[in-house]
Amino acid sequence: MRAFEIHTFRGGKWKIDSVFDDKELALFEARRMDESSRYSGVRVIEENFNESSQETVTRTLFKGGRAEK
């Protein structure tokens, strides 16, 4: 199972803003959010869950803004 999370940084904390099953849509929305300057940081995290091994692998696909990453 694969999911794409948009995380936003505000007030010194990262939080999950939204979750997508479509990579391109998540990246499009994250770039749009980053351009708005509403958040000091925006990132997209891809999560892959392997049901047979019960392990989750994550990687960052996009980093925007000025926040500590």
Walk me through this protein's architecture.
The chain is an alpha+beta fold and about 70 residues long. The protein has one domain. Helix content is about 20%, strand content about 55%. It has a four-stranded antiparallel β-sheet, covered by helices on one side. A hairpin with a 2-residue loop joins β1 and β2 (about 15-20). The N and C termini lie far apart (about 25 Å). The model has no long low-confidence stretch (mean pLDDT about 95).
How are the elements arranged and paired?
Blueprint: E1 2-10, E2 13-20, H1 23-35, E3 41-50, E4 55-65
Antiparallel strand pairs: 1-2, 1-3, 3-4
The number of domains is 1
Beta-strand residue fraction: over 45%
Shape: elongated
- Main sheet makeup: 4 strands, antiparallel
Number of helices: 1
SSE order in H/E notation?
Answer: EEHEE
Widest sheet: strand ordering: 2-1-3-4
Mean pLDDT: 93
- Alpha-carbon distance between the termini? 25 Å
> Approximately how much helix is present in the residues?
10-25%
Structural class estimated from helices and strands? alpha+beta
